[in-house]
Amino acid sequence: MVDDEVIYCSFHPNVETRLRCNRCGAPICAKCAVQTPVGFRCPQCVRSQQAVFYTATPVDYAIAAVVGLVASVVAAFIMGRVGIFLALFLGPLAGGAIAEAARWATGRRRGRWMWLVVSGCIVVGALVAAFYPVLFLLFTPRPLISLPLSMLFRLDLIIYVVLAVGTAYARLR
Ligand SMILES: [Zn+2]
Ligand SMILES: [Zn+2]
Q: From the CA of 28, which ligand is nearest?
């Protein structure tokens, strides 16, 4: 069948095209056609398809944040004691475990920003592990300045955060 009829893109009314979305049939131009494994689709169909793919609710995000935070604080305190060398090996494992805990707690529903929530938890957990000595100083008569700065610069925790966030991103993306 030869389709010589001139049609115009439904998103760009001035652009002539011969392409149609293979789901809803809307005319689309080369600029807005999205190539999917099943053919060219219009941006609207792609978006509604993704909405089905991402099923996490706001409650899921809240649960992921709580579970992720608890797991991240525990992991960061452990990582803060094992040394830089072990942090290199255990960092990805810890990140994977935190991601799995959040996934399990949310019934394995996917969320577009789930990786961001869990990564945020990992960062906050490491900050708690790094800065909790400051809390003790607040309740002592010593001036804050007496805290050695080296206590706050934690290369082991930085390494752990980078590796753990990388793993969590790969798992939850
Ligand atoms: Zn469509
Ligand atoms: Zn277009």
A: 2
Q: Which ligand is nearest to the CA of 44?
A: 1
| pLDDT tens, residue order, the chain (173 aa) | 445 678 999 999 999 999 999 999 999 999 999 998 889 999 999 988 888 888 899 999 999 999 999 999 999 999 999 988 999 999 999 999 999 999 999 999 999 999 999 999 999 999 999 888 777 777 776 655 555 665 567 889 999 999 999 999 999 98
> If you search the block for the tokens 């935070």, which residue do you land on?
69
Nearest residue to 114 via CA among 43, 47, 44, 53 = 53
Q: How many CB atoms lie within 10 A of CB 83?
A: 11
From the CA of 41, the nearest ligand is: 1
Q: Where are the domains of the chain?
A: 7-53, 58-172
Q: For the whole model, what pTM was predicted?
A: 0.72
**53 CA to middle of ligand 2, Å?**
24
**Spatial distance between the Cα atoms of 9 and 66, rounded to a whole number of angstroms:** 46
Residue 21 sits at the vertex; the CA angle it makes with 27 and 18, to the nearest 5 degrees, is 45
Q: Which residues surround ligand 1, an ion (CB under 5 A)?
A: 21, 23-24, 26, 42, 45
How far is 84 from 109, CA to CA, in rounded Å?
A: 34
Q: How many A from CA of 16 to the centre of ligand 1? A: 17
